[in-house]
């Protein structure tokens, strides 16, 4: 008889069951642990709530007020533009020369009326009018009138020396010196001369600084040649070129006007001086009849 099978005891069966149970547990996914939900306090964290009806109404009211303000601003701008356009049209429709003439006539009439009233009252009109001005203002006005009268008398040609003097005075009047650059250049020259020993800076008792030329080389004389080493700036050279160009343009303009007065502004239609005079005489009498024919010939539309 074969040997009888041994009966498995409890001690031998339990370890196998434990191994099998552990391996199955490891293969199964872990079940999520549900944590108790904590209630949030509204004071701890602000919650995102939907806008309420009062907030929507307030925003709509604010938008409406802004829209009304923009409408009022647009209306005010339109009214202002219309007013400015009306004034501009009136200004353009008014002749400035006529307006100046009317103002001058009104001032003369007011002056004559005041003078007549003063004479009727037995008062000195000039003395009464002088009460409205100070001595300095009266002197400036007298000087201005004297200068105006002398300028009026100086318009006619006298000689070339006077003509050159007028041109020189006009150029000096239009000259605008750069005083800041001048002061900077002067200080640089003084410092250079003081460093070389040719100039001595002396302070007086009242604190004023005086430059003393030791060897007589700082200040320019008739024998000085230091100006040949001076190199002007490009802006100064451009300004000189511009002034010369303006003088040349003025000369050419006067020449054209003078030629126009003599009938020389058109084409040259003469061969000598006598022929020129004859053509000018013909032009004076027959230009009003032949101008259209000549223009047609030049355009090439003459039939």
Distance between the termini: 158 Å
Computed CA radius of gyration, to the nearest angstrom: 52 Å
The pLDDT mean sits at 77
Beta-strand content: under 5%
Number of strands: 2
Question: What would the principal axes of the Cα set say about the shape?
Answer: extended
Structural class: mainly alpha
What does the largest sheet look like? 2 strands, antiparallel
Low-confidence stretches: 11-27, 32-48
Oligomeric state of the chains in view: single chain
Biggest β-sheet: strands ordered side by side in the sheet: 1-2
Pattern of helices and strands: HHHHHHHEEHH
Helicity, as a percent range? 55-70%
- Give me the number of helical elements: 9
Describe this structure in words.
This protein has 303 residues and is mainly α. The protein has nine helices and two strands, in the order αααααααββαα. The chain has a two-stranded antiparallel ribbon. Strand 1 and strand 2 (209-213) form a beta hairpin.
Descriptive labels:
65% helix, mainly alpha, 303 residues
SSE layout and pairings?
Blueprint (H helix, E strand, L loop, with lengths): L9 H18 L25 H41 L2 H25 L4 H6 L4 H19 L6 H15 L4 H18 L2 E5 L5 E5 L20 H28 L11 H27 L4
Antiparallel strand pairs: 1-2
Outline of this structure?
With 303 residues, the protein is mainly alpha-helical.
